[in-house]
Every structure is written in C-alpha cells, then in structure tokens.
C-alpha cells in the first residue's frame, strides 16, 4: 500500500503533527535534569575516591580524612572525628565552669542534674603543710608499730634514723645478724653467762608477720646496736 504523502513528508523531515509533537519545555527540562544528574553523579564520583589508589601516606593523611568526614555519621566515623560537644547539651558558654559538675555521662539513662552532691569541708580539714610540726617534734608520740613501719619502709632516710633513735630510747635493740628489733621481757631478768653474752626471755618484733614474739634467747652483745 502506498504511503500518504503527508506521512512520508513528516517521517522524512522528522516533523510530527501538532498533537504528537513533544513539548519544548519538557524536552529542555529533561535535558537539564539529565545534565544535573550527570553533574551530581560526577560529584559523587569525585567525593568517593577509590581508596585502593591511595598511597601509604595518603591513607593516614588529610586525603583519607576528607573521605571519612564526608561519610555518613556512624559509630566508626565518630571514633575517628569525634562528636560535637554542643550537640550533647553541654553549656560551653562559661569558660571557668567545670563540665564534670553537670555532665555525668553522654547516655541519657545515666545523666542527672546534680552530678556532684552538695558538701561542706570542715574547717579542721584545712591544714596547710606550713602548719604541720616537724617529724622530730612528734616522733616521740608514735607507737612502736609506727616506728617499726618507718624504720623498715624508709631505708637510708633521715626518718629511719629518727625512728631508730626513738626505739633505742624505748629500750629496743637492733640485732644486726637477725635484722630484727628486740627488747627484754619484763617478766624475767636475763642471766649473764660471761662478759660477752647473756640468756633470757626477749620480745622480738617480726616484720614479716608484723607481730611481737616472746621467746628465750642467748644474746651476744656484739650482735646488737
């Protein structure tokens, strides 16, 4: 069948009838939208750089950090770049205000208005180091156990010498071989055997078990100080 001349003309020239002609504005919008989408895709391609192309220096530099910042906020990105403190409800307007007094935790279930309970420091607690007496003025008031503690925990210190002097003044003697302190028992008097030793009941202080032990012992005078 022979084609209609008008149809042949329209088909040849590409001109459609008025009812079938595409809108110019629609075509333009479509072309613009297509170009915008292409630009956005290009931008996305630029933003999402291929990390496989990063060098070892780029992986730990600003280039890798830039890609992390543009990522969606996840737990991983928060670990890397942190969180904005202003978004946690913190009052950052007062520079001298401690955040620990009003902020207990970033989790809502553990937060409360008064983190630090109200308290009052007694006046007796306000002791300055300048008002403390010197140790040599108060060491005579210490107990025997306190003096032993100072002696064994402060080697080659002035406090060790002061504690030793006070123990000697209290009739304690240091056994150089046994490395313990001893004193005569008040229950009995030692019996001299010769000019260099005596036998009797003595009280020893055991620093390992931190206790006083009473036992009979032969004491040589050259072994004590």
TrEMBL record:
The lineage of its organism: Eukaryota, Fungi, Dikarya, Ascomycota, Saccharomycotina. Belongs to the CNOT2/3/5 family. GO terms for cellular component: CCR4-NOT core complex. Residues 101-223 form the NOT2/NOT3/NOT5 C-terminal domain. Keywords: Transcription, Transcription regulation. This is NOT2/NOT3/NOT5 C-terminal domain-containing protein. It comes from Babjeviella inositovora NRRL Y-12698. Residues 37-53 have a biased composition (Acidic residues). Residues 22-36 have a biased composition (Polar residues). Residues 1-55 are annotated as: Disordered. It holds the Pfam family NOT2_3_5_C. One of its GO terms (biological process) is nuclear-transcribed mRNA poly(A) tail shortening.
């Amino acid at each position: 069948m022979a084609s209609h001349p008008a149809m042949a003309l329209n088909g040849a020239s590409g001109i459609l009838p008025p009812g079938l002609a595409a809108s110019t504005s629609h075509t333009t919008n479509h072309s613009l939208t297509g170009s915008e989408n292409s630009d956005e895709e290009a931008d996305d391609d630029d933003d999402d750089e291929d990390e496989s192309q990063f060098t070892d220096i780029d992986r730990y530099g600003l280039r890798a950090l830039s890609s992390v910042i543009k990522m969606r906020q996840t737990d991983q990105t928060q670990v890397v770049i942190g969180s904005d403190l202003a978004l946690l409800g913190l009052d950052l307007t007062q520079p001298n205000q401690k955040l620990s007094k009003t902020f207990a935790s970033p989790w809502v279930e553990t937060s409360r208005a008064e983190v630090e309970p109200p308290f009052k420091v007694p006046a007796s607690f306000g002791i300055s180091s300048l008002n403390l007496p010197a140790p040599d003025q108060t060491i005579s008031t210490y107990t025997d156990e306190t003096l032993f503690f100072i002696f064994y925990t402060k080697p080659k210190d002035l406090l060790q010498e002061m504690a030793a002097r006070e123990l000697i003044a209290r009739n304690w003697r240091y056994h150089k071989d046994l490395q313990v302190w001893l004193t005569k028992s008040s229950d009995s008097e030692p019996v001299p055997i010769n000019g260099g030793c005596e036998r009797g009941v003595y009280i020893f202080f055991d620093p390992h078990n931190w206790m006083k032990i009473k036992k009979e012992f032969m004491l040589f005078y050259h072994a004590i100080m």
